[in-house]
Amino acid sequence: MLSTPMTENRTESPIPALHSSSVEAGWQRQGKLWSNLKELCDVLRIPSAAVHTDEELLFQHVQFKTGQRIHTIGQPFDTLYIVHSGFLKTVLIDEFGNEQVLSFPMKGDLFGVDGIHTKRYASEAVALSNCDLILLPFKKLTALGRAHPEFEHAMYSVMSRELVREQAMVSMLGALSAEARVARFLVNLSERYADMGYSSKLFNLRMTRHEIGSYLGLTLETVSRTLSAFNEIGLITVDQRSIGIKDLDALKTLRRLPPSSTRAKQSGAKKAKAAASKEPDQPDGEWDSLATA
Amino acid sequence: MLSTPMTENRTESPIPALHSSSVEAGWQRQGKLWSNLKELCDVLRIPSAAVHTDEELLFQHVQFKTGQRIHTIGQPFDTLYIVHSGFLKTVLIDEFGNEQVLSFPMKGDLFGVDGIHTKRYASEAVALSNCDLILLPFKKLTALGRAHPEFEHAMYSVMSRELVREQAMVSMLGALSAEARVARFLVNLSERYADMGYSSKLFNLRMTRHEIGSYLGLTLETVSRTLSAFNEIGLITVDQRSIGIKDLDALKTLRRLPPSSTRAKQSGAKKAKAAASKEPDQPDGEWDSLATA
DNA sequence: CGGGTCTTTGATTAGGTTCAATAAGAGTGG
DNA sequence: CCACTCTTATTGAACCTAATCAAAGACCCG
């Protein structure tokens, strides 16, 4: 009853998958339960050039429904996960039960890496929407790395990418103002949506203000207030989970306030007020469930 | 002239090493210019069991003097570094020239990993003391990984360790109060010193308050004030760069203040005042230069 | 000893949190 | 289908932590 209302989510699913039963159960829709190496590389956005397309290896998929937990902290580690579709969050739980959001994995992201070191997952992953994940058993990965040097390099590369991302987070949390953090968050989201082929101008947030706040090191109130402020200025439109990007450049340049100088901000910017509430493109919805690729 | 007085440090050394010249120059002291695979594993604190001790492979060492830059942001990546002795900092430079400290690598730490992804270092590494580093060419690493499966696993493990560390940083920056951050910083340092065989109770900081502040997402004034406060309460003794740990448990349990409750703190704790200024054990000094192993 | 860097400490300000109340959705079950 | 409940979101007001501005002392190096 503290400040962690997520408790419900966490108890509702007593660790489902990893039991082939739950995998081979229903979920025949889309009939895409296995991927080959090439598809794997494609999803990860790494060159699959030198990969022998005649490779026999196949990688199993697993589906999770909104709210389900993919893995828990302390659970024995043996496989990495690659998001094929859907949205998740990874969190750390501190000694008081408070959760700290670490990332919001989406298509093409790899997670579970933190389990390699201690042989146990260091974080918890939860589905924020219905998800389709590709299982990548660590044993298989290392074996594969030995057979395909390019793939090995690619895996190192992906892990490096994760590290750089974390560094950027640290940098952001350590130096940017609340407004700048929220602005960057929106810009990053927008770019990710663009990468995935969705609209970068209009999309739905899959996470709560509380989760965004945790991720950005802010309170949910501050996030809400900041979004409202951006809305007032005409940088975005906000309606609950629906976000419309109106002035991407302003959001991008809205850096820190701290440096005392440069405090002129982009104040006189747009005052469009943006009364627009509906636009022709609606990229997602809760319908992203198992529809991608 | 902004808030980055480190400029001096950064201009004094126009990228020295990586030119075998500067390596094979003087520095014959200790005569430890190469390490074999076993030594490498030992330093990294990973099992070297299955490693053939008759392995021919040798890894070159390089020495850097205080203030020298090991690599810069954007510089082409080709090698990883393992700290054999000495202290460093890795930093990110933002668009305004401000630096954000990401880590303080010391014995056994690996850095340069962020360069794998984009083929260029994403951060900058600077020696905070004279250092002895082991060069680990990335090409060599991958080749080695193929020949020695255990080593490959170990490398993934080390990278995973780095990621977990970053996650912990994010968590700290996102949720802990200034006091809690400084306390944890001291505890971590203390433990690292213990690991390295130094005293965990009395040691010298190798970084400035400014660097600590950057690392912890605080200003140098706050760091200074917090250290003074800890001193007042008797948790530590502070004299410039010299820190004496007086109540490790209190520092460890000094978590967050935020949760409103649990605000009792460990107030009535020790009021020893600690007038002690000199103790029998003095672990380091600027003399750590090339004396370890 | 002098210039520069680093550290400490104080006074003041401000950005963000906390507490609190209301509103808007989403889900449940009669 | 609507009442009821629970979660999520918005907004306001007061408070407080840490940043900012400022000044003086300590240390280092040439």
Greatest interface and its residue counts? A-B, 48 and 46 residues
> What proportion of the residues of chain A is helical, as a percent range?
25-40%
Order of helices and strands of chain A: HHEHEEEEEEHEEHHHEHHEEH
In the CATH hierarchy, the architecture of the largest domain in chain A is: Sandwich
Distance between the termini of chain A: 40 Å
Whole-number count of domains of chain A: 2
Structural class of chain A: alpha+beta
- Beta content of chain A comes to 15-25%
What's the CATH class of the largest domain in chain A, please? Answer: Mainly Beta
Sequence stretches where pLDDT stays below 50 over 5 or more residues of chain A:
1-29, 257-293
Rounded Rg of chain A: 20 Å
Please, what is the CATH homologous superfamily of the largest domain in chain A?
Jelly Rolls
**How many strand units of chain A?**
12
Reported by name, the CATH topology of the largest domain in chain A is Jelly Rolls
| Average pLDDT metric of chain A | 80
Largest sheet of chain A: 5 strands, antiparallel
Q: What spatial form of chain A do the alpha-carbon principal axes imply? A: globular
Q: Helix count of chain A, per DSSP?
A: 10
Biggest sheet of chain A: strands side by side, in what order?
A: 1-2-9-4-7
Describe the structure.
The structure is a homodimer of 293-residue chains. With 293 residues, chain A is an alpha+beta fold. Chain A has two domains: 7-172, Jelly Rolls (Sandwich), CATH 2.60.120; 178-281, Winged helix-like DNA-binding domain superfamily/Winged helix DNA-binding domain (Arc Repressor Mutant, subunit A), CATH 1.10.10.10. Helices cover 36% and strands 19% of the residues of chain A. Chain A is built from ten helices and twelve strands. In chain A, the strands form three sheets. A five-stranded antiparallel β-sheet of chain A has the order 1-2-9-4-7. A four-stranded antiparallel β-sheet of chain A has the order 3-8-5-6. In chain A, strands 10-12-11 form a three-stranded antiparallel β-sheet. In chain A, a hairpin with a 5-residue loop joins β5 (88-93) and β6 (99-103). The termini of chain A are far apart. In chain A, 42% of the residues are buried. The interface between A and B is large, with 48 and 46 residues. The first copy, chain A, binds a DNA duplex (30 and 30 nucleotides) through α9.
